């Protein structure tokens, strides 16, 4: 059995398009307010974009937990 945790984030671009980013193995003890602050800091730093198309805001964020269990085939 393996449990994975990811943060799936959508960012609004200056062009009106949306860019997706998945952050694996994030610290799941972070409060939603802390996640929001860090994402807003990424936007403010201008750290993200596609070419000259800059990220202008956070559109959404989801915590995704996946539990994978092998099926006994023998």
From TrEMBL:
Q: What InterPro entries would the database entry show?
A: DUF2922
Organism of derivation: Pseudoramibacter porci
Q: What is this protein called?
A: DUF2922 domain-containing protein
